[in-house]
Write a structure and sequence with these properties.
180 residues; 4 helices; alpha+beta; 2 domains; three-stranded antiparallel beta sheet
Length: 180
């Protein structure tokens, strides 16, 4: 069995290891070593350092995978605005939007009811009858305003919960990294 000379990566002590050995324990400092061979060079590397590097890379990969998953999930919560601009929903925005649409619907209903009622009072029964459905459009706006507001509020709420879960999972991965 042929031996080759290498130095311990930890304490620098000379070691004689079999040529086919990939791992060895230093007899001087008890460090577990990996024997590396490249061309004419022979050297050792502490296995604990390798483990730490692998664990660090594993945590980094976990974080990157989590961030990619979150980017995709976050995209599913986005809503398109009037001009196609995408944004995240907010509870406040959904409430304000719902209130604006509902107020417009109530305004429309009262104005249309006033106009159709006035037209029929002036002997234009045909005109009042033809426009009798206009107040119903206002009620349709009110119903749509409430429905859209509820939908947007729920979507904003779901986004907030998903974001909290993402942040918690990210925190857990980072805490594992710091504990190691």
């Amino acid at each position: 069995m042929a031996l080759e000379s290498v130095a311990c990566n930890n304490c620098g002590a000379p070691l004689q290891v079999p040529e086919e050995a990939n791992y060895v324990t230093c007899v001087h400092c008890s460090t577990q070593l990996s024997v590396k061979r490249t061309g004419n060079a022979r050297f050792t590397e502490a296995i604990d350092d390798l483990r730490e590097q692998v664990e660090k890379l594993t945590r980094q990969n976990e974080l990157e995978a989590l961030d990619r998953e979150w980017a995709l999930e976050r995209e599913s919560f986005m809503v398109s605005g009037k001009h196609g601009r995408r944004r995240l929903p907010t509870k406040t925005g959904s409430l304000i939007g719902g209130i604006v649409i509902t107020v417009f619907g109530l305004f429309w209903t009262s104005m249309a009811a006033g106009i159709t009622g006035t037209a029929s009072n002036f002997g234009g029964g045909g005109i009042g009858g033809a426009f009798a459905c206009f107040p119903l459009f206002g009620l349709l706006f009110v119903a749509a305003g409430i429905a859209i507001s509820i939908y947007a509020y729920r979507k904003a709420h779901d986004y907030e919960q998903a974001h909290r879960r993402y942040q918690q999972r990210r925190r857990e991965i980072l805490e594992k990294r710091e504990a190691d």
